[in-house]
Design goal:
This protein has about 190 residues and is of the alpha+beta class. The chain is built from seven helices and seven strands, in the order E-H-H-H-E-E-H-H-E-H-E-H-E-E. The protein has a seven-stranded mixed β-sheet. A hairpin with a 5-residue loop joins strand 2 and strand 3. The model has no long low-confidence stretch (mean pLDDT about 90).
Length: about 190
């Protein structure tokens, strides 16, 4: 695994956009499927500032995972959020989106002293190359080195099952009546 650089943005965004084309949460948040790319761009910019964008050695897998309390939000983060909101998110559902986001954020440990596994994707042809497993094992090694637990959320049952195979546990589940789907709050206790 290697840390991504600004020059890797197009590659990372492309992988995430394809990996999350059917993601329930992102489809709930966006106005149109094509706006998932804007969310991937936002995630890259946000996490790069926190040193949390990683590529597999083959360059076919991506993990966005960063220490949640590494850097406080600043004016640039808020600028990126506002830009994302007007470029990609559903203005009709703004209050539902904010409620959804707040519920998720409030379900994480409030001290922020953990690794947040935000996005995880791989090119379909790279699944045989084990890019996903390589990234996961590298993130786990990083968590052990930093003595931090790992937290994530998913709305996709298949992803929940994959997380569980990697040793994550569900510590909370929430059915969002506005979106019509479950959110599983996952954690991997390392310390």
């Amino acid at each position: 695994m290697k840390q991504a650089r600004k020059a890797d943005k197009a590659k990372v965004v492309s992988i995430l956009e394809k990996s999350f084309a059917e993601n329930k949460t992102l489809l709930f948040l966006t106005r149109k499927r094509k706006h998932i790319r804007k969310i991937a761009e936002y995630a890259f910019d946000y996490a790069l500032r926190r040193k949390g964008v990683f590529l597999s050695d083959s360059g076919n897998g991506v993990a966005i995972c960063y220490q949640y309390n590494h850097k406080k939000k600043d004016w640039l983060d808020y600028f990126y959020e506002i830009k994302l909101f007007f470029r990609a998110l559903s203005l009709k559902r703004a209050h539902k989106i904010m409620a959804h986001t707040k519920k998720i954020e409030n379900s994480r440990p409030q001290d922020g002293n953990f690794l947040y596994f935000w996005f995880f994707g791989a090119k379909p042809e790279s699944l045989k190359q084990n890019s996903a497993k390589e990234l996961y094992l590298s993130i786990l090694k990083l968590a052990k080195k930093k003595q931090l637990n790992i937290y994530a959320e998913t709305t996709i049952l298949k992803n929940k099952n994959v997380y569980e195979r990697f040793g994550f546990e569900v510590y909370k589940q929430w059915f969002n009546p506005d979106s019509g789907f479950n959110v599983w709050f996952m954690r991997k206790l390392v310390v």
